[in-house]
Amino acid sequence: MASSPARDSVTGPVPRTLLDSLPPVFAGNAFEDVRRLVGASAVKTVVLDDDPTGTQTVHGIDILADWSVPSLRAALEDPRPCFYVLTNSRSLPGPKAAALVGEIAGNLSLAARASGTDFVVVSRSDSTLRGHFAAELEALRTNLGYAVSGTIVIPAFFEGGRYTVDDVHYVAEGDKLVPAAETEFARDRTFGYSHSNMTEWIEEKTGRSVRASEVISIDIGTLRHAEGAKRVRRSLLEAPPGAHLVVNAAAYSDLEVFVHGLLQAEAMGKRFLLRTAASFVRVRAGIEARPLLAASDVLGEGAPGGLVIVGSYTGRTTAQLKSLLALSGTVGIEVAVDRLATPNSRAVEIARVTAAAREAMRAGHHAVVYTSRSRESALGIAGELAAGQIVSGALVEIVRGLPERPRFLVTKGGITSSEVAIHGLGMHRARVLGQVAQGVPVWEMGAETRFPRMKLVIWPGNVGDPDALRDLISAA
User: Fold this and answer.
1) How far, in Å, CA of 114 to CA of 118, rounded?
2) What's the chain's Rg over C-alpha atoms?
3) Which helix (H) or strand (E) holds 284?
4) Measuring CA to CA, how many Å separate 91 from each of 364, 415, 474?
5) Could you give the CA distance from residue 276 to residue 282 in angstroms, rounded to a whole number?
6) Structural domains of the chain, with CATH
7) What is the pLDDT of residues 284-316, one digit of tens each?
8) Would you say the C-alpha torsion 123, 57, 177, 191 has a positive or negative sign?
């Protein structure tokens, strides 16, 4: 479990059967040990989510879009083990994201002192490794108000087919596992990267202030050993101050063993910063898995029709959009991104799309509002933050302009979902009901929103096969 050598000599996809070649999973029930320790602990898990897709694995948990001290204090005093704060910081430039996360951390510290509640922070980010890694974690270290023992990075997200084996992070595509740096996500205009090996990735993202050779690896063999939790605890207790650790994981039982050891180390005074994907959160909070929600319960029935807002530009989203638009009963309405470049043409385009969506829904059809798929436009190149903010602002105005409540609302893409929920619907607080498909959360809007108690389906841009979105809407 010492520092791991670089493994970026691994190139090209590998068969998914790699997962079958790993040691057998831990034979015990580590999750029951986790639930027991969580239940006995007064430490609250606070998840700072850099876009709203991080609620992909939990249910019965609140999401806050308000991080004032009174709001955070009320959430800390709630008896449930966990809550989310939606920062949407992935949509911001690095310095602004750091300032926002620092403000929330400072408010959390004040709220915790006022309520007498201890807490641990999970910085939830993208399982395909996009986000302000170094800037946000430094802001947390500076503002949390407690000594940080080190940083733990856990990007595994099983519902979306993301696995970390021998420190290499993989994205499942069909029957292959593709090293993350060889996927479209690594070519992101803002958050691109060159390394699939997580020790090398950390070195890259910290500007070499942390060297790959210094990163401690928790390997799958350790997590599948009969004394795995004990070994994890020892590694965490012996890690030098400020160390970075990578956790390999290919199944929920791996996370459960790790969290069992982590909770023991926390009980002995350790406090780590946690940068993770969504699967970790459910385990750390001791939340049991539950069956998927029925599509009919989420999408409703009768008139008017539903509304799908597609802002993500990933290849997966574009394939899902193409499949959806072939479904009978849908009406595709393209937002011409070029026309958003000037105030006059922007106003005309927003009015045109809003009217078309309203007409389609009144006729009982499902309106699919989507941004033009061209990677380049008058606003710049898709994926640049400034262009994304202009486009998401237009989508918000379209939602605001609808006079009637749609039968259902599905938003495609993390930033799109956040902007529509907060600025389009006026959300301050929502409840995660569960998932309607693997990795696809459903929120119930609060009473303060424009459409009270509406169920909002938040579909990440990087989740699902080409027909997954169509399959959901076909059930409406």
Assistant:
1) 11
2) 22
3) helix 278-284
4) 34, 6, 31
5) 11
6) 14-284 (3.40.50.10840), 295-473 (3.40.980.20)
7) 999 999 999 999 999 988 779 999 999 888 888
8) negative
